[in-house]
Amino acid sequence: MKRLKLVDKLVFFVNSIVATMLLLSYILPYVSPKNFALLSVLSLAVPFLILLNILFFVYWLLKVKKQLLLSLIILFIGYNYLFSLYKFSSSKNIEDPNNISVMNYNVRLFNVFEWIPDETVKIQIVDFISEKQPDVLSMQEYRPDEAIDLKGYYKYEELSGKKVKNGQAIFSKFPIVNSGSIEFPNTSNNAIFVDIVKAKDTIRIYNVHLQSLGIDPTVEKLANESSENLFKRVSKTFKMQESQTDLFLQHKARCKYKMVICGDFNNTAYSYVYKEIKGDLQDAFVEGGNGFGRTFNFKFFPVRIDFILADDAFEVNGFKTFDVELSDHYPILAKLKLAK
């Protein structure tokens, strides 16, 4: 350290802070937001912290300095986090006639408030879905509309709201024999489920939409909001997400069928709620995806908050994130095959 120039000493000081924050974030999935809400907020920054530590490692590597060991060791300790952020392997794509294609898509009310200045957005979304023809489609922030006509599907929807009816929906090419909703108090968010029948198998499909963070990702909006207000609001949201997760897990524990959980968790794969909902299930992106797998259009770094989870009764034969900018979320699709 004594041999470092002043600039490098400052760089290493910042490097130490960033490395410590990343190390601290490794315990976040095991920390209840109700007990440490402010600490849980750090889970949103994990992708950014990983990328910063990689940059610090490269910086010291190019300078041939032993300080590279700090970020290298921290990254190595949390190598599972690194692979959750970026999959280096090619995307799995095994075609099999027994595959069940499952798509999850937060459609942001089909652009009813014209966030995207294009009146054809809802038609483009329907055309995209019709082209991909998923066997099962889970949608958040869904609203019924005469122009939204998906032919060949059974449907279950749960809606609320006065001005614009909206909620969650599940479409299935397989018959729906049971359905229902898990209501979350004091919010329009909820979880819904359907039981579908494929051949002799009954499969439970969940669509989970946890409390939104309410963060506008544009630079202008973030710049005008104080960090104190932002932290308080996000902390409150994380507490609500934990309560909603508890209600969902109580329902999930009573399910006797093979299951797939889809949804917009409004939180990352480094969070407490993700760990609790995932449990022993497979994350389809981790098993079959590649690249960053980002699902939310956040300008600063890749964020994955939409998930498809499947239990061990399924083989994950493929996963894809579609670069379709018709919402603030990107659609994801998994190919699942029931293991014999």
UniProtKB/TrEMBL annotation:
An MF annotation (GO) of this entry: hydrolase activity
Annotated InterPro entries: Endo/exonu/phosph_ase_sf, Endo/exonuclease/phosphatase, TDP2-like
Names of the cofactor(s): Mn(2+); Mg(2+)
Keyword Membrane listed: yes
Domain Endonuclease/exonuclease/phosphatase: 105-329
Keyword tags: DNA damage, DNA repair, Endonuclease, Hydrolase, Magnesium, Membrane, Metal-binding, Nuclease, Transmembrane, Transmembrane helix
Transmembrane segments: 12-31, 37-61, 68-86
Domain of life: Bacteria
Database matches in Gene3D superfamilies: Endonuclease/exonuclease/phosphatase (3.60.10.10)
Protein name: Endonuclease/exonuclease/phosphatase family metal-dependent hydrolase
Organism: Meridianimaribacter flavus
